[in-house]
Write a structure and sequence with these properties.
By secondary structure, the protein is mainly α. It folds into three domains: about 1-70, no CATH class; about 90-175, no CATH class; about 175-250, Serine Threonine Protein Phosphatase 5, Tetratricopeptide repeat, CATH 1.25.40. It contains 15 helices and no strands. Helix 2 (about 10-20) runs parallel beside helix 4, helix 3 runs antiparallel to helix 4 and helix 12 (about 185-195) packs antiparallel against helix 13. It starts with a helix and ends with a helix.
């Protein structure tokens, strides 16, 4: 695990070969953790995921795929280039957020009726209602349609599927949702870590409230960029965007 976090692919592979028992049926849960770790990153760990699968771990041969948050991490951290490898183990969940994050517009449309209203069926079948970690750690409350719509919006924006994001905004998703990967903030806050200016501009152009403050530090996205991200250039860019908006509203 440490080798992966350090970006040391050789030590990572050597360790798994040396301790081959970690690839056995007895350690499937550990293999899932390793695979999930390749998607929880702002840097590209595709080589590590490929290395794991090339070693033919037992998880590849499970009659029933074990539980995993690998897809959740891939969409939340904009690591969708990992999906073809993840699909060797897990089928893509059939719900609105996963369709939006995957850029599957045809499937997104199917979750709405002819009048454009959400037609999600059983909410328990949609993320995040079916995610035990979120329900246990983020105090998300009772599952509801708005959570599903807002998560779908977030994943569409995070992965630059802006046509889908526009569709969701026109069909009930809230651009000012307090969605975030770890605690209430905003999609704009989350994008600070990804340095995704295109997605941030998309949200700004569509009127996201740039004064939203996060739950923990009571800070705007600009504050995250300046104090947490240590990115003065981004903080200045966000500040100038806010100034232009204020000037235009006078």
């Amino acid at each position: 695990m440490q080798a992966m976090y350090d970006g040391d692919l050789k030590s990572f592979v050597d360790g798994l070969r040396r301790e081959a028992w970690l690839l056995s049926d007895a350690c499937v849960k550990f293999q899932v953790r390793l695979i999930e770790g390749t998607a929880v990153a702002f840097n590209d760990r595709a080589a590590f995921l490929k290395a794991i699968l090339d070693l033919d771990p037992a998880v590849l041969h499970c009659p029933v795929a074990p539980p995993s948050r690998a897809f959740v991490h891939a969409f939340t951290y904009a690591q969708t280039h990992l999906l073809p490898m993840l699909l060797r183990i897990w089928p893509m969940p059939d719900d609105l957020p996963h369709a939006a994050g995957n850029g599957d517009f045809a499937r997104v449309r199917r979750w709405f009726d002819v009048a454009g209203r959400p037609a999600l069926g059983e909410l328990a079948n949609h993320f995040p209602a079916n995610d035990a970690w979120i329900r246990g750690n983020l105090e998300a409350g009772e599952p509801n349609v708005q959570q599903v719509l807002d998560t779908a919006l977030a994943w569409a924006v995070m992965n630059n599927h802006f046509e889908i994001a526009d569709f969701l905004l026109g069909h009930g998703a809230d651009i000012n949702t307090n969605w975030s990967s770890h605690e209430p903030a905003s999609i704009l806050h989350e994008l600070v870590w990804h340095k995704n200016y295109e997605a941030m501009q998309f949200l700004i152009d569509r009127g996201i409230d740039m004064t939203i403050k996060d739950y923990r530090w009571n800070s705007t996205a600009q504050g995250w960029a300046y104090y947490a991200g240590k990115d003065k250039q981004m903080a200045q860019w966000l500040g100038e965007a806010q100034q232009r908006r204020e000037q235009a509203s006078r």
